[in-house]
Structures are given as C-alpha cells and as structure tokens.
Amino acid sequence: MDCVLLTHADCLGHQPGERHPEAPARLTAVLDGIAAAGLLRTWQRIDAPRVTREQLERVHHPAYLDEVENVAPASGLHRLDADTVMSPGSLAAASRAAGAVVHAVDLVMGGRTRSVFCATRPPGHHARAGDAMGFCIYGNVAVGMAHALAAHGIERVAVADFDVHRGNGTESMFRREPRVLMADSFQHPYYPQGNFPERAGYLPMRLAAGDGSDAFRRHWTQNALPALRAFKPQIVFISAGFDAHRDDPLANIQLEAADYRWLTHALRDIAEASGKGRIISTLEGGYGLGNIGAAVAAHLMALGDCSR
Ligand SMILES: [Zn+2]
Asked: Which is higher by pLDDT, 221 or 306?
C-alpha cells in the first residue's frame, strides 16, 4: 500500500513578503528533500483539494471566516496580525492546506492508505477559532481532526505537535473535547507568550533554549508516549514543525534529523497498536532552507510503513 503525499501548487502562491520567514521556498525545499531521498517511489503525490466552509466551521467562527474572505487582497498585502500576512494567493493556499488534512482523513478512513504527509503552507497550529496568529490562517490539523470526529465517528484522536512553538491554536479549539488528547513539546518561554492550561487532554512538554536530543527524547519517552499509547487513539495526527532543528534560524533547540525519525517511529507504533496504522502528518514550521528537506525526509522514512 502506497503512502500519500498531499500538496498543491496553490500553496506556493501564498507570498507574505520578501523578508518573511514563512516563504514559498520552504515548500520547494521540502518537496526537493523528499525527491532527493528517493521517497517518491513509495509516496504517491496527489493534489490537495480545497476545504469547504462546512469543514472550516467545525473549528472556526463564521465571522472570522467571513473576515478572512473579505480582507483577502486582490493586489498587495493585508496584515491579519503582527506576523500573519495575506497576499492575493493566500486564500487558495490556506484552503488547500486545510483541505489536505480533511482529504487525508478520508483516505485513511477509506482504507486507501495508512500514512499521509501534507506538504502544504501556510501552517496552522497557532490559528484560533476567531483569529489568525503566528503565520497561520486556518487551523489545518484541527480542521482534519474535527472531520475525523464529525464525519467518521472516530471517538479517540491523538495529536502530537513537535514544532518548536506551542500549538496554542489546536489546544484551544479542543479544550472541552474529551475525545482528543494532545501532546505538545515546545521551547519555553518563547512564542507564543503567556500561560497555558494544565488540564486533562493536554500534555505540555517545556524545552529550554539550548536543549537537544536528550531532553527532547526524555520528555516524550517519560510523559507523552505512554499517555498516548494508553489513550488508544483510533487515528494519530502530527503537527510536524521542523523549527526545533539545530540549524533553524528562528529558535534555540538543537535537534537533529534523526530525532524526527525517532519520534515518528514511536508515534507510528502507537497508530499501529490501536489505530490500524492510520497516521496523518501535516507541515507546520521549519525555516532553515538548508535543513528542512532532509528533516522532512527523515520524518517520512518513519511515517510510512512502505519505507520502514
Ligand atoms: Zn514553529
């Protein structure tokens, strides 16, 4: 059974400005890294569909969705918040990024594949129900998770977020949802600032600036992986940000590509134990154009049962 790589040329059309780190070149580097690793022999590339309004409204307020559509510029740039900028191509890119995760759910639930990677942008895990935030317009992984719960009757969804920034948007959208367990490792204190809830259903793991593989693996091994396994998720989602890499320009964690492969193997084992192997990963951050391709390739080598 092939693994599936969902992406779309529209995702290159989101152009938040010359010096913005969330640049189209990131996606090009990711796709080049996947190809260079020989993964296109086992990963079938499919165009991501657009998301529907109904799918977005499961996690976003209608007024916010109206606002995003109304302010989308026909030319020039429009700033949604301090970091989140829309260009003329942004709405289409965001629609494909959220639509990819929804389609991934339909593919794994339909038995078409077990492993999906969504190579899309803009990222999504900071977007909140009623606000854009931190380069994110729609909560891509949250939209997919809500689709699994609402359209497929899934009762236990796990999401693992290893982006260097806390997945505050995803966390806030499922705060009162007992069917979701989220494990989230992030540099702290760092963006986004502020306190966060200590609550059932959310497993925060704080990494200090300068931490590397040992601390990262210890947190996941001691705290998150046993809890995720005990939760018996029927489907595992990954918010795959690669900005905790040692060569990333935005943060101060010292991970190597091998760390992504290690954690992904562990998450895949959990998906196989209770979720028929169903695992869906979507690209979040990662801003080092020289390292993100190899990091994503390492992630995919563990994500797909076809390449173990
Ligand atoms: Zn990030």
From this structure: 221
